[in-house]
Write a structure and sequence with these properties.
The chain contains four helices and seven strands. By secondary structure, the protein is an alpha+beta fold.
Length: 166
């Protein structure tokens, strides 16, 4: 993983559209333009890390500081990397940083998404849900997750910004 750069925007936009399409279609909410534009509007390179595989952008994850912890946002992996342990490795890195800071992590995931099971395996629990989203939280671990290798870039600042739903 490496810190995102402005040039990463469009490759990530396309990965997001591919990854989110099945769940958004299932929920009757897929709009090819909107799924791309919502990410363009919310992209913050300072809080985003890019997953690189074979020299190319293959996904991303954002850990945005909030008043009471962090928001895990925009976690997308190219379909070729899914189911191979890459998502778990990325989560361990991100959660290790939050654990070191002693901060909870919140996220939302589309209802019915297979990603919810991944988050549950990493200690996230249901906080609330609505017809589209499931909101989850993970309290900091007493024993921080430590993984060798890539690290999550530190956020540029602790400023609070508004979360945008998918």
């Amino acid at each position: 993983m490496r810190r995102a750069e402005p040039a990463d925007l469009e490759p990530i936009v396309e990965i997001r559209a591919v990854v989110m399409r099945p769940d958004l279609e299932r929920l009757g909410r897929f709009d090819a333009h909107r799924v791309r534009q919502r990410f363009r509007d919310a992209f913050s390179p300072a809080h985003t890390s890019v997953v690189v595989a074979d020299g190319s952008v293959a996904g991303c994850v954002a850990l945005r500081p909030a008043e009471d912890g962090y928001w895990l946002e925009h976690f997308y992996l190219a379909p070729a990397l899914q189911g191979r342990g890459v998502g778990s490795a990325v989560l361990r890195t991100v959660l290790g940083r939050a654990d070191a800071d002693g901060m909870p992590v919140r996220l939302n995931v589309l209802r019915g998404s297979a990603a919810q099971r991944l988050y549950e395996r990493h200690g996230f629990i249901l906080q609330a849900q609505d017809p589209v989203d499931v909101f989850m939280v993970r309290e900091p671990s007493v024993e921080p997750h430590r993984v060798p290798g890539p690290t999550m870039p530190a956020p540029a600042s602790a400023s609070v910004s508004r979360r945008l739903p998918a």
